[in-house]
């Protein structure tokens, strides 16, 4: 089957946004295709890790990108950048002789798309989705459409974080309330919906679309609960230490704690004391702020990298674990937590069944083998995901 395939990733497209603002294009695509509204992302729900997972069809345990972790071998906190030891969907397409292009999907730069290769083109125009749409349209007008086109936009992520104003998103001041932050995010989603329609119109008529995201977005504000976590661990007789990238624990430290802002990764420095830790976590679970916990066995089942953590703790929505524990944070958004792990996965167009909204558990890494199926090629070499056969027509 010869068709064109469009992969769209909207960074921080939370499932809870759907239905809260008019999105006629997404509504039509859902009616004519398949929408998994509760697709599950992996651990951690941080952009480089999950974007890499989606394009490889594998979790961090396979491709190795896990962002930040305490490395027991070196005794220091390490941080991954854009590392990836697995084949991407663009490399699989290139291997099969298909033309490829990527507009700002950074996980494909040098991995099946390249800045200096017209047959496998990578472009990085920056800015918001409007600017990237113009570049995608220019690519499609300039010659035969690439068989595989990836398109990445991070407008929802930038507005949802609410860290600083960004002129490309028409907001020249940060939101002062969480409701204002959410209103701006939803306003942008409506604009992106219209732009998605224009992108699809520019594609050939035999196009299939796969649209998903790396994570959702969780609101928080106020003071950090990290001091309470540390106090509970100390009360149990443990010696925790919060470490930043490049730091090593002091002599006598039991647990290395690392955080990106929302959740806390706990990693044993030397001798594990699991029963003591379990007792401390049990007491924390009674606190107002407590959200959840995963032990190493559950992290393994979820595809987390072996170095990521021995135990993962996170607060419920509204609370956070930033190291600036004396700061009263304004309304902000974050996503490095399982609370941001339920996201949409949409398939539409040539080769896709018309099923509408579909329930049931699926994972975002199924995007890669689904893209491969639609392209008529083998999935990326290290892909471990199923291909969503119910949503795809037989070739």
Describe this structure in words.
This protein is α/β, with parallel strands linked by helices and 395 residues long. The protein has 2 domains: 4-217 and 338-375, Alkaline Phosphatase, subunit A (3-Layer(aba) Sandwich); 220-334, Gyrase A, domain 2, CATH 3.30.1360. Helices cover 28% and strands 22% of the residues. The strands form 4 sheets. It has an 8-stranded mixed β-sheet with strand order 6-5-7-1-8-16-2-17, with helices on both faces. Strands 10-11-12-14-13 form a 5-stranded mixed β-sheet. A two-stranded antiparallel ribbon has the order 3-4. Helix 6 runs antiparallel to helix 7 and helix 8 (226-235) packs across helix 9 (274-284). It is globular. The protein starts with a strand and ends in a 20-residue tail after the last helix. The mean pLDDT is 95.
Order of helices and strands: EHEHHEEHEEHEHHEEHEEEHEHEEEEH
**Can you say what the CATH homologous superfamily of the largest domain is?**
Alkaline Phosphatase, subunit A
Query: What is the CA-atom radius of gyration, in angstroms?
Result: 21 Å
Helix/strand-derived category reads alpha/beta
Which strands sit side by side, in order, in the main sheet?
A: 6-5-7-1-8-16-2-17
Q: Give unreliable regions as ranges.
A: none
Tally the helices. Answer: 11
Shape: globular
CATH topology of the largest domain: Alkaline Phosphatase, subunit A
In short, what is this structure?
It is built from eleven helices and 17 strands.
């Amino acid at each position: 089957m010869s068709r064109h395939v469009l992969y769209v990733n909207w960074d921080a497209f939370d499932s809870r946004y759907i239905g809260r603002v008019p999105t006629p294009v997404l509504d039509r695509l859902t009616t004519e295709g398949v929408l998994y509204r509760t697709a599950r992302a992996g651990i951690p729900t941080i952009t480089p890790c999950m974007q890499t997972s989606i394009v490889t069809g594998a979790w961090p345990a396979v491709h190795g990108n896990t962002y930040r972790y305490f490395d027991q071998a070196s005794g220091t906190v390490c941080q991954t950048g854009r590392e990836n030891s697995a084949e991407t969907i663009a490399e699989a397409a290139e291997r099969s002789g298909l033309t490829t292009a990527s507009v700002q999907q950074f996980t494909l730069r040098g991995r099946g798309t390249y800045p200096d290769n017209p047959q496998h083109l990578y472009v990085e125009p920056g800015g918001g989705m409007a600017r990237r749409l113009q570049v995608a349209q220019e690519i499609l007008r300039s010659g035969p459409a690439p068989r595989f086109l990836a398109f990445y936009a991070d407008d929802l992520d930038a507005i949802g974080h609410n860290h600083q104003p960004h002129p490309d998103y028409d907001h020249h001041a940060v939101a002062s309330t969480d409701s204002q932050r959410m209103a701006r995010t939803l306003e942008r989603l409506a604009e992106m919906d219209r732009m998605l329609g224009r992108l699809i119109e520019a594609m050939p008529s035999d196009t299939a679309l796969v649209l998903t995201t790396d994570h959702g977005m969780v609101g928080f504000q106020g003071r950090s609960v990290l001091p309470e976590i540390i106090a509970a661990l100390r009360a149990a007789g443990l010696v925790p230490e919060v470490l930043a990238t490049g730091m090593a624990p002091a002599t006598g430290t039991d647990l290395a704690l690392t955080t990106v802002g929302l959740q806390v990764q706990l990693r044993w420095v030397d001798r594990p004391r699991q029963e003591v830790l379990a007792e401390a976590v049990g007491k924390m679970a009674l606190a107002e702020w407590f959200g959840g916990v995963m032990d190493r066995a559950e992290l393994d089942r979820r595809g987390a990298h072996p170095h990521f953590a021995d135990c993962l703790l996170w607060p419920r929505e509204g609370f956070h674990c930033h190291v600036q524990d004396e700061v009263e944070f304004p309304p902000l958004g974050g996503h490095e937590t399982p609370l941001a792990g339920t996201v949409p996965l949409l398939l539409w167009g040539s080769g896709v069944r018309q099923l509408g909204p579909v329930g049931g558990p699926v994972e975002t890494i199924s995007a890669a083998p689904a893209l491969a199926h639609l392209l008529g090629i083998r999935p990326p070499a290290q892909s471990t995901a199923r291909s969503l056969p119910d949503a795809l027509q037989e070739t």
